[in-house]
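[Automated response] Your request has been received and processed.

Submitted sequence:
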Amino acid sequence: MSFALAAILIFIPCLSAAGNSASEFQPPGGIPSEIWSYFIPRDNPLTSAKVELGRQLFFDPRLSVDGSVSCASCHDPHLGFADGRRVAVGIGGRLGSRNTPTLLNAMFNSTLFWDGRADSLEAQALEPLVNADEMGNTSHDQVVRRLNAIPEYNRQFNAVFGSNIRIDLLSKAIAAYERTLASANAPYDRFLAGDRSALNDAAQRGLALFRGRARCSVCHSLNTSFPFLSDGNYRNTGVAGNLSTFDSLARRAIVLSNSGDDEDLRLLNGSQGKSELGRFLVTRNAIDVGSFRTPILRNVELTAPYFHDGSAATLADVVRYYARGGNENSGKDWELQTVNLSEQDQLDLIEFLKSLTSDDARKTASLQALRANNP
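Generated structure:
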C-alpha cells in the first residue's frame, strides 16, 4: 500500500459511494456529530472530489520550490501526522524554529500554529508555501504557475470549484482533506461509553490523577462535549525558559512593541529568539510573552518529541517536567505548580495518555514500524 493511499484509507471518515454533500462524512466514535458539523465552514463544505484533490496536493512535493517537500514531509500519517523531529525540516535541510504539531483533530482548534497566528486551516495551509525554511516559494503566484502546468490539476480544480487554479482554492482543498483527519475511537472513548474494561487498572489510576491531584485537567480539559483534552488557551508553562536569555529577550520585546518599532522587533534575536516569544508576537500583549497553545492530547503517544521546541523526548520527560513545576521565567503561568508524584503515579499517567491513541492511528504507526523492521 502506498504512503498516500494508506492515509486516505485509514483516516478519512465514512464516505458514501455517491453524492457530494457533507453527509458523506461522519466523525469517528467519541466525537459528537454537532461539534464535527460546527467546525466545517459553510464556505468550504466537504465533498469527496474536493477531499481527494486536497489529499493529492497534501502529498505532492511539487508544491515546494525544488520539488523536495510536501505537506506530508512534516505531517507524516505514520507519525501521527507530525514528523518525529525536534523542529521541522524544510527544503535543503533547512531547520525551522518550532516542533511540528499534529494535524490529527487540528480542525477543532480555533486557531492554528503554536502561537495561533492563523484563524483557520485554510489560512494555515498558505504559510508553509512561502516560508523560506519550509517550501521556499517566493510567492503564492509562483505555486499557482507551477500547478497550472499540470493538466490533471487544471481538470480537477475546474471539476471541483468551477474555476482555474487559484491559491485560495488550493488552500480550501488542502483544508478539506485535513478536516477528514478527525481521530477518536480510542480506549478512553470506549471507557466513557461504559466499557469499564477498556482501560486497565494503571490507566484508570492515571485518569484519576489527571483530573485530580496531578492537575493536568487545569489546561487539558476533560469535557465530553468537546473531548479533545485542551482548553484552547495560550499559556507560558516555562518551556520558553529553555532559552537562557529568555527574560532579557522578553523585556526587550515588550519595550520594542510599546514603542511601535516593528522592524527591530522582527529582527529581535534571530529566529530562535522570536520562536520563544510565542503568542506575544501575534497579540503584542505582554501577558502573552512565552505563551503557546495548549495542545490536544489525543494520539499524543505517537507525536514525540514534545513542547513547542521539541525539548521533551518522551512522555516520561513531559510528566517529570510538569511534576517539578517547569522552568522558572518572568511570565510563567501561576497555575503551574510543583506536584508530588511518585514514580508509579507518573507511570500511571503515561498509561492513561496512551489510552488516548485511536485504533486507526495506532494501526498506521504499527504499519510504519513493521516496514522499518522489514525493509
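Summary generated for your ticket: DSSP finds 17 helices and two strands in the chain. Strands lie at 234-235, 292-293.
If you did not submit this request, please reply to this message.
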